[in-house]
Amino acid sequence: MAVETTHRICSFCEATCGLELEVDREARKLVSVRGNKDDVLSQGYLCPKAVALKDLDEDPDRLRQPLVRRGGNLEPATWDEAFAEIKKRIRPILEEHGGGSVGIYVGNPTAHKPSLSLAHGALVRSLGTSHMYSASTLDQMPRHVAAGLMYGSWTSVPVPDIDRTDLIVVVGGNPMASNGSMWTVPNFRGRHRALKERGGRMVVIDPKRTQSAKAADTHLAIRPGTDVFFFFSILATLFDEDLVQPRHLESYLINVDLLRSAVAGYLPEETAEATGLEPEAVRALARDLSRTERAVLYARIGTSVAEYGSTANWAVDVINALCGNLDHEGGVMWPRAAAFQFNSAPGREVNGGEGKGVRSGRRKSRVRGAPEVMGEFPAVCLAEEIETPGEGQIRALFTTAGNPALSAPNGQRLARALDSLDFMVSTDIYLNETTRHADVILPGQSPLEDFHFPIPFMAMSVRNVARFSPAVFDLEEGRPAEWQIMYQLALIISGQDETTSTQDYDDMVISNQVNAALKTHPTLEGFTPEDILAQLEPRRGPERQVDLGVRTGPYGDFFGARPDGLSLGKLLENPQGIDFGALEPRLPGVLSTPGGKIDLMPQAIAEDLPRVKAGLARTRVEVGAGARLLMIGRRNTRTNNSWMHNLPTLAKGKFKGALEISPADAKARGLASGDIARVENKSGSVEVEVDVTDDMSPGTVSLPHGFGHVMSDTNMTIAARNPGVNSNLLASDQAVDPLSGTAILNAIPVEVSAI
């Protein structure tokens, strides 16, 4: 066995840890996975997910051949047969009803596969449909809304500069398990240890004593769903105790007085009954955030998938700004990515940060009138748009690396809707709870069969780094790459598949991008398209787009105009990555707002304030009534997506899908660990194993998402052995944060009883 060592960026989660792989290429076998101690970002750290790369690559359940539905059953087919079936079925739908009758759903793994994400736009453009849906409205969309309203770009999300902070306050997140979420921070545990060694502190606000809470200096157990009231009480205290000190931000902030008036009724004494937090503890935290030279407030999914997700996320950024911790060393800062980052585009730093800002609601969904955000509608609208007859009804659906039948509320309704479609195509690595409804399934690649360049995560990284990993293994001969699948689908939909090859389409895509670069980059003056295309040879597909992106990015060589700059060739010569240093202040250039200012009271937020006020009054009444349990989710290092449940390395050990409940609540209901309980509300009912733990606050239970692998016509053998239950059957598909369309998956009222 001839084993060689190669390096790879892990593609399982946002931490993007650097790996050292031992590979037997002749046998096409991954022999071992270790942390790469020389990686510029992770420096040898890795979690169990990275080791499971071998499981995923070798998983016998992973699809390697297309499936086509014949006589009601999904049967193996050739690639030619699969594409022929798609052409045969989709063309009549398009001819009769147009591209607007086709929906698109994109799942979370797409963001971790740059080749797929860069090519997916071809499918979207070919259809011209407004029916766009994704996992974003089941997760982080409120974070994008806050960034868009305040900074003028949906993707300008500032991240904690933990390596230099003296105080980090974590709300509704568990970075000890996630190593960052909307924040790329590998080895959070090690970075927290360094924080402690320099005399810093961590405070965690969470209904559960998570791994992060156990490591914190202070843990405050907040009542689920009340984060927005807590944030408002911090703001009210900042004004009440004259703690507002924006420092270098003062000239950028507008509508401070409007903000002061808006939060005046939310002093800690007025919110304590709702949040369950002692007023003095909240006031002390406000003082610490204001008076600590380098401090940061970080909030994550617990605040996002909640009733006031967007307004809560906006409040987090406002607190950081009023304490002078925005765009400040040790506070929250904006990374400068090597490529594909809007806020570092040419001219952005020069024009003083002025722009048009963001717009949402340009279109409304057909059935409930939900506004689009970032070009997509809420995922909870998908079922009703399929079910409801009329012009614009979804009659066909393309899904890419997504499993909304598990990840979205009311999955049973969505499953019925998927069965009613005229046609469905899924590009995925598994026959799962969603793809089982498809008429054609096109198998995706193993991550090891594709390059990796973590596009969205460079823009949320704790340091400015650039890293690229080439494919470890070649694709089987005759099997298209995922980018070629997307291009072929686009050609079929546009009717060009008989005259144009995927290679021709790829040449057209890169030519358009080169021409756009020549128009926007002054550094390329004097170059012709032919000059640039010649230098991009012999690369093809998204890899060629990456080379163009890094060479015209903030560190780029601009095809020789900056000889010491970055190119894909240079990244390949540096498999450990290239470190461009710690995060740096980026105002005003990072902004894209009218006048280059940060609006502390955007109109959308102002219009949401009466709902927040009414919610505070309602919550006080509910607390007074007592007895009701509130359900939250939770993060586990081994189970952050449903498809990870089929990997032996991650599935082993204690069952991870149990209902966690406090001893007091368990005793009141006659429950003990290992018992089966019924969990129910007006949305649904599930029966699940119980885990009694002191980690849960009284009045709160926790059930993780992504489980419920009980369908007999799926093929995920390991997952089916410990199927768990689908927590989203207890969530309503009618309940959303109105500003972002994000489903409410946190603080769900439930009744728990022994069976």
Write the layout of secondary structure elements.
Layout: E1 4-9, E2 18-24, E3 29-35, H1 48-51, H2 53-58, E4 67-70, E5 73-76, H3 79-97, E6 102-106, H4 114-127, E7 132-134, H5 141-151, E8 159-160, E9 167-171, H6 175-178, H7 188-197, E10 201-205, H8 211-215, E11 218-220, H9 227-240, E12 253-254, H10 256-262, H11 268-275, H12 279-291, E13 295-299, H13 301-304, H14 309-322, E14 332-333, H15 382-387, E15 396-400, H16 404-407, H17 411-420, E16 423-428, E17 440-443, H18 455-458, E18 465-466, H19 482-494, H20 502-520, H21 529-536, H22 541-551, H23 568-573, E19 578-579, E20 598-599, H24 603-625, E21 629-632, H25 648-651, E22 659-661, H26 663-668, E23 676-680, E24 685-692, E25 700-702, H27 717-721, E26 736-737, E27 742-743, E28 748-754
Parallel strand pairs: 6-7, 6-15, 9-10, 9-13, 10-11, 12-20, 15-16, 16-17, 21-25, 22-24
Antiparallel strand pairs: 1-2, 2-3, 4-5, 4-17, 8-14, 18-19, 21-28, 22-25, 23-24, 23-28, 26-27
Helix pairs in contact: 3-19, 4-19, 4-22, 5-14, 9-11, 9-12, 9-14, 11-12, 19-20, 20-22
